[in-house]
Automatic annotation (TrEMBL):
Lineage, broadest ranks: Bacteria, Bacillati, Actinomycetota, Actinomycetes, Kitasatosporales
Transmembrane segment boundaries: none
Keyword annotations: Amino-acid biosynthesis, ATP-binding, Kinase, Nucleotide-binding, Transferase
Pfam families to which the protein is assigned, alphabetical: AA_kinase
Designated name of the protein: [LysW]-aminoadipate/[LysW]-glutamate kinase
Organism per entry: Kitasatospora saccharophila
InterPro entries assigned to the protein according to its UniProt record, in alphabetical order: AceGlu_kinase-like_sf, AcgluKinase_fam, Asp/Glu/Uridylate_kinase
Length: 263
């Protein structure tokens, strides 16, 4: 990995609050020699803001079984409020360690999305709903031109759809699209579990093909999305995706976590 190759890290909303000082020290140390992109999640802070977002009705499932948060304009406003606070927190943590930051909200031109699915399962019926979500179609890397060692771009994974609407999108898949667009060699998905589990056993290495086969059978919720994101990143030329909960340099070195490779 050359010093100019950016490292893309997605930090899950489930775990952001729990990363110890040593995790931030490690990220800053890595960031001194590698440009950093940190894509943040928001699941836990959003639940803390409004407990009703924990209720099953807050999540919709499409015809294919893909889940997403039912995103109304009010939910989007809550996401933006929580994300602004998170970004400030991240800026404080990295700034204190000598890494400068800038914020890019995906919907400000970084991430494009297609029109969203309109039919969703509700109370065991498929119903037509306005849901401000959309599948990512493209990333414009010119918005990331400030990348350099010692600097970290903080990305809020929202997108803009073809109708010009701001939409919610999946953070893992956004990070995959960003890493592909940047030509990053690795994508690190930091979450609240140390490994992918298959049959309750930790997986240390796995190929994209095996992941695709396992994904729809054995993984649920957040992990299913991560595996989908991993496949997308590898398809876009990223050489490996690492999922885990350890310091980024340990994950990049394959000392822990689950390393997913094209073959
Ligand atoms: N096969 C699996 N192996 C590991 N974790 C899994 C698996 N299937 C589902 N999960 C769940 O996926 C979660 C991680 O996804 P998620 O909650 O979305 O975290 P994040 O906030 O990092 O995106 C884990 O906490 C775990 O409960
Ligand atoms: Mg998740």
């Amino acid at each position: 990995m050359s010093a100019t190759t950016p490292t893309v890290v997605k930090l899950g909303g489930s775990t952001l609050h729990a990363m110890p000082d040593a995790w931030w020290d490690d990220l800053a140390e890595h960031g001194r020699t590698h440009p950093l992109v940190l894509v943040h999640g928001w699941s836990r802070p959003l639940r803390l803001l409004r407990p009703e977002y924990s209720e099953p009705s807050a999540i919709l499932r499409d015809r294919y079984g893909n889940q997403s948060r039912w995103t109304t304009p009010e939910v989007l406003a809550d996401i933006k409020q929580v994300s602004a606070a998170l970004t400030e927190q991240l800026d404080g943590l990295l700034g204190a360690r000598g890494i400068s930051t800038e914020r890019v909200v995906g919907s400000d031109g970084l991430v494009g999305a297609a029109a969203g699915e309109r039919w969703w399962w509700k109370d065991k019926q498929l119903v037509e709903l306005d849901n401000l979500v959309g599948p990512i179609t493209d990333v414009d890397p010119t918005l990331l031109k400030g990348l350099r060692p010692g600097h970290c771009v903080l990305v809020t994974p929202l997108a803009r759809n073809t109708a010009g609407q701001e939409v919610n999108t999946d953070g893992d898949r956004a990070a995959a699209a960003v890493s592909g667009a940047l030509g990053a060699t690795a994508l690190v998905l930091v979450t609240d579990v140390p490994h992918l589990l298959i049959d309750d056993r930790p997986v240390h290495r796995i190929t994209a093909e095996a992941v695709a086969e396992f994904r729809d059978k054995g993984a649920t919720g957040g992990m299913r999305k991560k595996l989908r994101a991993a496949g997308e990143a590898l398809e876009r030329g990223v050489q490996r995706v690492v999922i885990g909960s350890a310091p980024v340099t340990d994950l990049l070195a394959g000392r822990t976590g689950t390393v997913i490779t094209p073959s």
